[in-house]
Every structure is written in structure tokens, then in C-alpha cells.
Write a structure and sequence with these properties.
The protein has 87 residues and is mainly alpha-helical. The chain is built from three helices and no strands. Keywords: Toxin-antitoxin system.
């Protein structure tokens, strides 16, 4: 069963959607938005799986022998090396 959903978008977004349809990639607005939702669902599921894998790896690594200040210092140094921290 399909449900009807009404949305409002700015003219610029509407023009973009229409261009996607006129370009032949999608048959109509509904196909375009269904594809967007599917892609978002896939992206989110992938992110959840990646996070779970990271958590499993962290848990398997055991308990660190470093103190919290040592861990924080190492994290700051890594962030600086990656250009994520300025101070």
C-alpha cells in the first residue's frame, strides 16, 4: 500500500527535482523522493554498522593501562595532527 505525502520545497529545489526527472533519471517526483529515502536509509544503516564494528573493536582491545589525562593528551595530539584542533 502506498501512502500519499505532500511536501513543500523552495523553487530552487523544485527546479532541481524537475531537472532530474526531465533528464530521464526518474519517471516522476515520487520516484525521485523514494530513491532519496532509500539512499538515506542505506547510508544510516551503513553508519550504524560501522559504529557497531568500531565498538566491537574497542571492546575487544581491552582496558587501557593509560590514565585518563594520558588518553586525553594523546587524543588532542592526534586531533592536532589531523588538523581538527587549533590550540
Amino acid at each position: 500500500m502506498m501512502n500519499r505525502l505532500t511536501i513543500s520545497v523552495p523553487e530552487q529545489m523544485n527546479a532541481y527535482v524537475e531537472a532530474q526527472i526531465n533528464g530521464g533519471r526518474y519517471g516522476n517526483v515520487s520516484e525521485y523522493f523514494r530513491d532519496l529515502v532509500r539512499r538515506d536509509q542505506e547510508r544510516r544503516e551503513s553508519a550504524i554498522q560501522e559504529l557497531r564494528a568500531m565498538l566491537d573493536k574497542a571492546e575487544a582491545s581491552g582496558v587501557s593501562s593509560r590514565s585518563l589525562p594520558e588518553i586525553m593528551k594523546a587524543a588532542r595530539e592526534e586531533a592536532r595532527a589531523q588538523g581538527l584542533l587549533d590550540d
